[in-house]
Design goal:
This protein has 287 residues and is mainly α. The chain has 13 helices and no strands. It has one domain: Tetracycline Repressor, domain 2, CATH 1.10.357.140.
Length: 287
């Protein structure tokens, strides 16, 4: 049963947002010069609960669509390994746990927790009415760096917001690539996506533009990080180079005529990029 729930929420996909959340946490710790293990655990729990709720709700809401799509008909609800009622209860439980954990972090996180849930749960509706669904997904994951920073400091700052902007454009760009697999199906079901609206070539072009913006934003974010703390973090520069290389690589292995390596571009490439960048920044700040 546990295996079914882990598959339901695609727990392995946590590697996309979690390293950026840890960057936000590291920025907060470095700015106040204080590290608390209990707070770190609470931030990790918030990440798990929020993502569980978002992914499970997406599976719940899309259960009828998934049953019609050959690529997704083996997902837990269409396949019958989990009932829709159990999945909805799982969503409700994780939402409660997320809000409760935020309460024990600080008042600002608690007050903002329903807003975060509204965004990450609301994403599941967007492909029914707007091609901007990819950006809404990016917005949801972009809450990770600023949320972790707020957990430590209890105030907003432009630096974690820059990293949040990186996540927004990065995730939106690779989600467009991932959605290329379903463009024909989405079109037949009157669902909205960039590939449906622009075609495969146009979608890949827009994804490239978003990732170019990502590259600019991550360079700006790291530059201002160096500027604020008046030193150069050399390991971070290595992580930055790898991240930029992975951005480029995923566009080199995908074309409108050949989507056979979409999963490599989506999961492997972006997973490596996120983990290496996150690890390099955190190592420089905290070691």
């Amino acid at each position: 049963m546990v295996k079914n729930y882990l598959s339901l929420v695609k727990f392995s996909h946590t590697i996309f947002a979690l390293p950026f959340a840890l960057i936000g946490f590291a920025l907060g710790v470095y700015s106040i010069n204080s590290f608390e293990y209990l707070l770190f655990l609470k931030v990790l729990l918030c990440m798990v609960f929020a993502r569980n709720a978002a992914m499970a709700y997406n599976r719940y809401l899309d259960r009828d669509i998934d049953a019609l799509n050959p690529r997704t008909l083996n997902r837990e609800i269409p396949a019958g390994t989990l009932s829709a009622r159990r999945v909805l209860f799982f969503v409700f439980l994780n939402c409660l746990l997320f809000i409760a954990t935020c309460y024990f972090i600080n008042w600002l996180c608690f007050v903002l927790s329903p807003v975060a849930l509204l965004i990450i749960l609301g994403y599941s509706y967007t492909k029914r009415f707007t091609v901007l669904c990819h950006l809404v997904l990016g917005l949801g994951l972009s809450l990770a760096p600023i949320g972790a920073y707020l957990a430590v400091t209890s105030h907003f700052d432009y630096l974690p917001l820059l990293y949040s902007a990186v996540v927004l454009t990065w995730v939106a760009g690779f989600d467009i690539i991932y959605s290329l697999q379903d463009d024909d199906f989405d079109r037949s079901q009157d669902l909205y996506s960039i590939p449906v609206a622009l075609g495969r070539k146009g979608a890949l072009r827009l994804s490239s533009i978003l990732h170019l913006l990502t590259a600019i934003l991550i360079c700006v974010a790291i530059y201002f990080t160096f500027l604020r703390y008046e030193q150069i973090y050399w390991i971070t520069l290595v992580g930055l180079i790898v991240f930029l290389a992975m951005l480029l690589y995923q566009h080199l292995i995908i074309s409108s005529a050949n989507l056979s390596r979409v999963n490599v571009a989506f999961m492997t490439t972006n997973g490596i990029a996120s983990v290496i960048l996150g690890a390099s920044v955190i190592f420089d700040f905290l070691v």
